[in-house]
Every structure is written in C-alpha cells, then in structure tokens.
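thread: overnight batch results

M.L. [08:02]
morning all. the overnight job finished for the chain we discussed friday. pasting input first so we're all looking at the same thing
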Amino acid sequence: MTLRAHGLTRRYQRGTRPVTALSTVDLELSPGELAVAAGPSGSGKTTLLSLLAGLDTPDAGTVDTVPPLPPGVPPAALGWRDLAFVPQSATLLEELTVRENVALPVRLAPGTPPVNIDELLDRLDLAHLGARYPSQVSGGEQQRTAIARALVLSPHVLLADEPTGHQDRVRVHRVLTVLRAHAYAGHTVLLSSHDEDVIAGADRLLRLVDGRLAGDARPAART
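M.L. [08:03]
and the structure it wrote out:
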C-alpha cells in the first residue's frame, strides 16, 4: 500500500499565538524501503505521523492511499492488517501480559491465519518476558512490546513515532533490523527519529525543519 500526502498542513493555537506545526507537506511513501523522518524536537515529526495515520485532522491538505480507501473511510479506520501506528508512549493494556498485548490484534481479527507470536517476541528480545505485565517490565521493554503488537499482523503500512527512544544501542539495532525486514518484505514503513543510528540506517531520509519538508533523499547504498 502506498501512502500519499498532498499539501498537508496543521496549525495549533498556543495561548493567543498561532503555531504552524506542519506546512504544505507533499509526500509519497511506497513499499520496500525504510523511511525515516528526522529533525529536532518541534520540527513536525509527530504531527506528520499522526496526520498520516488519521489520528489527527489536517487544517489543509489530504492523505490518501494506493489502492484507494473506500469513500469516507479515513486511515484511522483501517484494521491492524492495513495500518499500524506505534506512538511514543507504549499504550499497553495493563491487565494483559506482554504476550497477550502482542496477541491482541490477532484476537480482534477473527479468521486471521496462525501467527508465530513467540518468534516475534524472540526477535525483539522479549521471549523471556511474555508472562509479565507491563508494570513489571522496563520502559524500553514496553516500547518493544508495542512494536511487536504493531507488527503481529504484518500491516501494509507501519508508522512508528520515535520507536527506539527508550532503547540502548544494542536494542536500537535489533529494532531497526526487525523494522527493516518488514519494509523489505514489501510493506510501507515510516519512522520518526532524531537518533543518529536510526538516521544512518535509513533507506530514505525525510528532513523536517520548522514543519516543512526540507529534504527528501535516498542515501548512498550501505556496504
């Protein structure tokens, strides 16, 4: 699934002062590459992902997909198989274990083919934590659980806001390996980050400055 934005703009009111969080962004994201939206805090990364996911409404511009969505269906109405979003906060269900949180999209999608949840937990270094509850694991482990939950149905589009923000260096690379494999399997993946390791691992780098798309490049192939 290809995700497209046309003239995407979002403004907020901060007290009496209007603030433009995102301004006239045109963007097309296609399957098969790991795209990273980079920029300092306040550059518009989270706003961009929220608008693309349909979790926020733009003041101007549109978001559409190829193939197109049915008339009147926003991206936020898509199921976990089509579009999954990983927010900065893990938003796990406290009454469910780590494994049960990851399995939740499967439970909510009757008729889903068998999914190897244990393999996914292992790839994200969570296999030994499956029986624990979110309150019993670290912030980094909660974040990886949210990533596993987003990936469990192999969504056509994956959007992740700072998905390595609570990870150490070793696990940053583990998370990137898993997300890159998902992209290379023919899915559309966009991360936001200011982490230099994540930026260095991007197939496509989108530079945001003051809410504007200041650069869109595919770095030279890594050796």
